[in-house]
Amino acid sequence: MSVPQPRIVSWPGPIPAASEQLFQLLTFGLQQQLPVAAWRLPGTEHVQLCLSLSAEAALTGLPPALSPEAPAGFAFFPFRDSDHNPALFLPADIYWHAEQPDQLHLDATDSRASQLLAFLATEHAADPAPLPWHLSTQPVPHTATQAEYFQLVETGVEAIRHGQVVKVVSSRAARRPLPAHFDVLRAFSDLCARYPRAFVSLVSAPGAGTWLGASPEVLVEIDEQGIFRTMALAGTQALAPGALPHHAIWRQKEIEEQALVARYIVSCFKQLRLREYDETGPRTVVAGQLLHLRTDFAVNLRQVPFPTLGTDMLRLLHPTSAVGGMPKQAALSFLQQHEGYDRAYYSGFLGPVNLPQSGVSRLFVNLRCLQLRSQEAVLYAGTGLTADSDPEREWQETEMKLSTIGAVLR
Ligand SMILES: C=C(O[C@H]1C=CC=C(C(=O)O)[C@@H]1O)C(=O)O
Questions:
Q1: Model pLDDT, residue 6
Q2: Which of 393, 397, 401 to mutate to test the pocket of ligand 1 (most atoms within 8 A of CB)?
Q3: Where do the domains of the chain lie, and which CATH numbers do they carry?
Q4: Across the strands, what pairs with 310?
Q5: pTM (2 decimals)?
Q6: What CA–CA distance (Å, rounded) separates 397 from 346?
């Protein structure tokens, strides 16, 4: 039996503005209770969208394979895979890129895809009803008070001093009311405008709910030139108004914290017996109103014959020491025992696989994100702890990180 291949079809009828195209595609997907993802890559202008025609097909339970032969779609992976927070891979049954607004990638012989084409060809109400975003059925996570977070940091520092862990990344959730007439799509374009260097995402899927984010951290990337990339991102300070990022001075604590993440990446290369990688940094980078220290790693997959490097590194890296800690298992057990809430998809990973073309994948760590609830949003942020961590400073750091995504709620 031959497998139907996705094809390119023309947008039916006159082509509206990209924001209206996005709205119509999302409307169709959400009204049919299907999983959808929209994203804007760092440093680019155009939004892309992937819509799956079956909610069940998105429940993979496995990290995606990053090979050109693997299915194309959008990965949405939790911090910890569980029944509450299933690992999702949204097959790209429908794919749209605002750069080619006249095109839709789909299999027109599929009856649901033809329903979409019929839907797009019809006139839409000028004053549409709000979109039926998917909402998580899980309870709202516990949100730590300042006293509870101080306690968590102190327990983390104790664990480091006793040698149970070398580094651990504690985190918390915070509830914020939604402003009146909050519009998710407007918030998504607001994020795109505010954070041109971030990976801006909007994912809405049965079982997972709706998540918005502006992540500064690449987990694993394979680009059009066959270059594999990953990064060690850690250390945080506020970007003072008028200050130049490269004038930032880092404390020993942040330098060590970031060096541990970089060392972990090198240990993963070693585990795979890969010696031919480029390492650049650490240097100071801007993420919204914050500065981080970043080391970039690159491998040219056309020169180093390692076709499974992307898939192998993804499995070794997640969750990285920038969101879990080191040693990995000890840090994860510490968090399981002491963090006191469910991170769900915060500090998981997400991004397009084999889109817009096979062999190209871009996965990011799900940071600076929020989860939409019916009347409120749940925001998430964490901080890397070392033996010198001070609870008050760590709390302030989570406040600064929360304000990156919190900006769209004001
Ligand atoms: C865990 C988060 O950030 C990570 C990435 C950059 C800097 C970090 C830090 O300074 O602690 C964190 O490792 C978060 O934003 O919630």
A1: 62
A2: 401
A3: 146-195+231-342+370-409 (3.60.120.10)
A4: none
A5: 0.97
A6: 17
- 10-residue mean pLDDT profile of the chain (410 residues): values are 67 93 96 97 97 90 90 96 90 97 93 94 79 95 97 98 96 97 96 97 96 98 97 95 90 92 96 96 95 98 93 96 94 97 97 96 98 96 93 97 96
> Which atom of ligand 1 lies at the shortest distance from residue 401's CA?
15
Q: 214 pairs with which residues across the strands? A: 200
The C-alpha atoms of residue 216 and residue 366 are separated, in whole angstroms, by 9
Instruction: Name which of 360, 212, 198, 179 is nearest 286 in CA terms.
Output: 198
- Residue owning the nearest CA to atom 13 of ligand 1: 322
For residue 176, the CA-to-ligand 1 centroid distance in Å is 20
What ipTM was estimated for this complex?
0.99
How many angstroms does the Cα of residue 6 sit away from the middle of ligand 1?
39
CA–centroid distance, 175 to ligand 1, in Å, is 19
Q: Which two tokens stand for residue 340?
A: 């006191």
Whole-angstrom distance, CA of residue 244 vs CA of residue 95: 40
